[in-house]
């Protein structure tokens, strides 16, 4: 006998957006909400700074190490690849993953530096495709006013404008755009509805690849 729970796969739900769009807060609120519904759910984020590769990324972001743009791009990507099989196991075992950033950050941030977008996309191919991408939309100017940027490498207005342009290029019909400037409770509610719908409807779809 295989319980109903084990027959259902989890959903891969990604939140994307510029730095300071509120993603991290919304991710944890969504996880609490889904847990409250008795669902099996985990909070993930990329970069995952807890691996060796993640440590290299973290030091790069803190401006502590100089690496060329291509090398950094491949490190971020490798950081997703090193979590791929665990991700697949969790999803197949019925756990929904709420992921703070994924390949879209990878491509947008690197292409914003001037790297060719197709070159950036290539190594992401084969990673698990999300069931839902929630894009928290905010203007770079508005984001920069939110408590100010920290000291990390990418947290600069001009660069974030460029990232925003590339997010726009990547956006497709599977993305759900949520206005990040609405009151937080309203943003939260919209994301909850999108997530529940995605968890429901992914049951009929096999896992697929980017
Ligand atoms: P976070 O921990 O979410 O604040 O992300 C750290 C910074 O790294 C943030 O400015 C976004 C950026 N970032 C996230 N993923 C990638 C990626 O795959 N490639 C590049 N180049 N930057 C990324
Ligand atoms: Na950040
Ligand atoms: Na964040």
UniProtKB/TrEMBL annotation:
GO BP terms, alphabetized: dTDP biosynthetic process; dTTP biosynthetic process; dUDP biosynthetic process
Natural source organism: Vanilla planifolia
InterPro entries associated with the record: P-loop_NTPase, Thymidylate_kin-like_dom, Thymidylate_kinase
Pathway(s) of this molecule: Pyrimidine metabolism; dTTP biosynthesis
Annotated Thymidylate kinase-like domain residues: 15-191
One CC-aspect GO term: mitochondrion
Protein name: Thymidylate kinase
Keywords: ATP-binding, Kinase, Nucleotide biosynthesis, Nucleotide-binding, Transferase
EC number(s) recorded for this UniProt protein: 2.7.4.9
Pfam families assigned to the protein according to its UniProt record, in alphabetical order: Thymidylate_kin
Xref: CDD domains: TMPK
GO molecular-function terms, A-Z: ATP binding; dTMP kinase activity; nucleoside diphosphate kinase activity
Similarity section: Belongs to the thymidylate kinase family.
């Amino acid at each position: 006998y295989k319980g109903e729970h084990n027959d259902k796969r989890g959903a891969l739900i990604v939140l994307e957006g510029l730095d300071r769009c509120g993603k991290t807060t919304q991710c944890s609120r969504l996880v609490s909400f889904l847990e409250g519904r008795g669902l099996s759910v985990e909070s993930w984020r990329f970069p995952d700074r807890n691996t060796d590769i993640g440590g290299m990324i973290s030091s790069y972001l803190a401006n502590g190490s100089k690496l060329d743009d291509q090398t950094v791009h491949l490190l971020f990507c490798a950081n997703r690849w090193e979590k791929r099989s665990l991700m697949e196991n969790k999803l197949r075992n019925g756990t929904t993953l709420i992921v703070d950033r994924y390949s879209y950050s990878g491509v947008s941030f690197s292409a914003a530096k001037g790297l060719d977008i197709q070159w950036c996309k290539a190594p992401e191919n084969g990673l698990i495709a999300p069931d839902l991408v929630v894009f928290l939309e905010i203007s770079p100017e508005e984001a920069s006013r939110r408590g100010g940027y920290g000291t990390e490498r990418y947290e600069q207005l001009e660069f974030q404008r460029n990232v925003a342009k590339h997010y726009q290029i990547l956006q497709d019909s599977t993305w759900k755009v949520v206005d990040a400037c609405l009151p937080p409770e309203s943003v939260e509610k919209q994301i909850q509805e999108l997530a529940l719908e995605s968890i429901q409807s992914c049951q009929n779809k096999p896992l697929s690849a980017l």
